Amino acid sequence: MVRILLSGAGGTMGRVVAEAAADREDCRIAAGFDVRGGEGAFPIYTSLDAVAEAVDVIIDFSHPAALDALLAYAVSHRLPLVIATTGISPEGIEKIQRASGQTAIFFSANMSLGVSLMTELAVKAAQVLSPRFDIEIIERHHNQKIDAPSGTALKLADAMNEALGGGYHYVYDRHAVRQKRDPHEIGIHAVRGGTIVGEHEILFAGRDELLTIRHQATSKEIFATGALAAAAFLLGRAPGLYGMRDLLG
User: What radius of gyration do the chain's Cα atoms show?
Assistant: First the structure.
């Protein structure tokens, strides 16, 4: 039985993770952490230092502001950490990389199996079609999402750019640019509205043809399921930085 400390327990995704864990026999939420507090079937603390329950792993669906405290807690207690929070800055990612030298950390901008496969397909398509095809990414999320573009959109762009030798730059807004499109750019566009769980679409636009790769999430439960699988995966792992590719093997 995997005992989980759930960071962001009082938030929307925290509640989804708790519900998903309650339906499983191989794990349980032993305690929660949320600076705003909250109520649940397990104790929720507003300070990590107050957590009294024994836990095996941490799952984080909170806010980038909590990153420093979580990394320090995970390292000092030698606890594996699953980071599913989005909007983490490049400086934050560097901190994650450094902390992974001391404890096992699973970090992914998106916990969906489908998005992981989408990334692999996008890389292959980019390698075959670029630079003859222009690349545009469109992501759509609910009107409560704070960061834009989404971490997943950036992950998709980074994966393709790396596969293409890193020679592409990103364009987020075209209204002030009065010039032809640069063949070595990736356009990234964010849409916010309603209760859209999450949609990511990559357009490969060539001469007289268009290839589209699209993923749509219809429930937040897919992210909770992925986070729980990642938590189980981390048990007994050596310090290091892990991701969806490691989980899927």
Answer: 19
Digit-coded pLDDT (tens) for 28-56: 999 999 999 888 889 999 999 999 999 99
Q: For residues 249 and 244, what is the distance between their CA atoms, to the nearest angstrom? A: 8
Structure tokens at 16: 């989804």
Residues belonging to the active site: 141, 145
Sheet with 104-107, edge to edge strand ranges: 44-45, 27-33, 2-7, 57-60, 81-83, 104-107, 240-242
Which of 69, 107, 102 is CA-nearest to residue 85?
Answer: 107
pLDDT of residue 39: 80
Closest CA to 105 of 245, 228, 230: 230
Sign of CA pseudo-dihedral 182, 183, 184, 189 = positive
